[in-house]
Task: inverse folding
């Protein structure tokens, strides 16, 4: 008896341990950290992430200053060109596009909608680790005409010219898509076969609309090829696949192991025996692609910060942003409370740290033959009080400790504007489920590298 797997998609590599889960869940994709397998030391990984975040912050500050000068409001988290979130490119979804299938690695971004990858011919692109997708070599590639409803549905499109039959064929739909960090992609809107490796004897592919990018600029890394939008809009991967839920589980950025993202998984799915907490997903018609949360307050240790709830009203969860950022006054309140409770000497970027707030960790006073490099240091808890749930972050999700350098840093940051963005560093080893049908976000602690085997 054949299994009912018409909607089952398994991405790029065979994951035999997932076979039973795949049948129930629908779509399963391999998920890796962007720096996985590079052999980089932990401080270097954090430094790279912090530098990317700092570059993004400079761009946001520039945009915020421009908005003040011109009197035009800055829509937090959005680009000026109808694009999506602030992308710093940390976790990659692996799949294949075209016939024959060609591998791509796309940043999982819940703050934007468009799915796109770099394409040949490349007019101006960032370096990537695999060959460019060449639409001329795919028998299932089809450009979207510029007068098609699909083209008109995107905010910034035009009619492309160029050599007939080429990737910039006559009367094809040319798109421009911006992100909050001023990254952008320009190319041809098209449809092609997206392949997710078959399970047993069942085929698994889907003809999807995507951006074939010929001009792509921004803060990108060499082992990614584009972005997979997981936002609320019609162009996102969840929307095009017609699923009503999806989930992901980010492994620690210090590990080379992969995890998974699922589309169509049941919202009640449990991870590693933990019980989920749940909170409402809120819609904002002015920023319809984003997933807003009802953040009511923040506690450091047992101290709930005296931050007015209105300063936390614009809070989103964003898989494409790395470090959680807060409005400057909220961040300063968090920072001051950590300084007060940790009680260690404060060092900053001028001392070589890649992060804003760091502490000098003392050596122990024990005899040298019993001396540890650093003693245990008390770190207060950090809790995000959401509507109906208290998200107490694991210590490793907001503090980085470099024992060799005797430095401990807070992995949080400030950003201009009024929006709080919960980034993927704070979501490590947490199974996060988006129930789109009921507008509920659920989360639970998990060993993400073990979750695949357990399912």
Result:
């Amino acid at each position: 008896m054949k299994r009912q797997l018409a909607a089952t998609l398994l991405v790029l590599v065979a994951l035999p341990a997932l076979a039973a889960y795949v049948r129930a869940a629908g779509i399963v994709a391999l998920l890796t950290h962007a720096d996985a397998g590079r052999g980089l030391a932990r401080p270097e990984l954090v430094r790279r992430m912090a530098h990317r975040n700092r570059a993004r912050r400079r761009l946001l500050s520039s945009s915020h200053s421009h908005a003040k000068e011109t009197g035009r409001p800055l829509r937090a988290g959005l680009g000026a060109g109808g694009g999506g979130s602030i992308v710093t490119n940390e976790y990659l979804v692996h799949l294949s596009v075209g016939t024959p299938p060609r591998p791509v690695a796309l940043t999982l971004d819940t703050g934007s909608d468009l799915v796109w990858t770099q394409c040949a011919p490349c007019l101006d692109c960032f370096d990537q680790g695999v060959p460019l997708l060449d639409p001329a070599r795919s028998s299932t590639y089809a450009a979207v005409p510029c007068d098609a409803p699909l083209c008109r549905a995107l905010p910034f499109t035009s009619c492309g010219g160029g050599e007939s039959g080429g990737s910039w064929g006559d009367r094809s739909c040319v798109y421009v898509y911006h992100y909050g960090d001023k990254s952008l992609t320009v190319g041809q809107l098209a449809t092609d076969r997206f392949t997710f490796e078959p399970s047993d004897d069942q085929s698994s592919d889907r003809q999807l609309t995507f951006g074939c990018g010929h001009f792509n600029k921004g803060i990108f890394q060499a082992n990614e090829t584009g972005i997979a939008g997981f936002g609320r809009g019609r162009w996102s991967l969840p929307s095009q696949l017609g699923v009503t839920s999806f989930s992901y589980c980010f492994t620690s950025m210090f590990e080379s192991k992969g995890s998974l993202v699922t589309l169509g998984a049941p919202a009640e799915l449990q991870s590693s025996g933990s019980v989920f907490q749940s909170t409402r997903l809120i819609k904002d018609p002015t920023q319809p692609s984003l997933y807003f949360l009802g953040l009511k307050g923040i506690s450091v240790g047992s101290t709930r910060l005296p931050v007015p709830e209105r300063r936390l009203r614009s809070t989103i969860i964003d898989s494409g942003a790395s470090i959680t950022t807060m409005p400057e006054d909220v961040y300063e309140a968090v920072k001051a409370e950590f300084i007060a409770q940790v009680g260690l000497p404060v060092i900053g970027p001028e001392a070589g740290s890649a992060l804003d707030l760091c502490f000098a960790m003392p050596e122990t006073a024990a005899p040298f033959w019993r001396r540890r490099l650093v003693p245990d240091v008390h770190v207060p808890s950090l809790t995000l009080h959401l509507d109906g749930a208290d998200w107490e972050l694991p210590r490793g999700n907001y503090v980085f400790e470099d024992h060799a350098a005797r430095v401990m840093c807070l992995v949080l940051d400030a950003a201009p504007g009024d929006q709080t963005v919960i980034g993927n560093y704070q979501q490590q080893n947490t199974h996060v489920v988006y129930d789109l049908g009921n507008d509920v976000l659920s989360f639970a602690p998990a060993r993400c590298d073990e979750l695949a085997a357990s399912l």
User: Anything to note?
Assistant: The mean pLDDT is 78. The helical segments are 19-25, 42-70, 149-152, 237-241, 328-342, 448-454. Residues 242 and 264 are 8 Å apart (CA to CA).
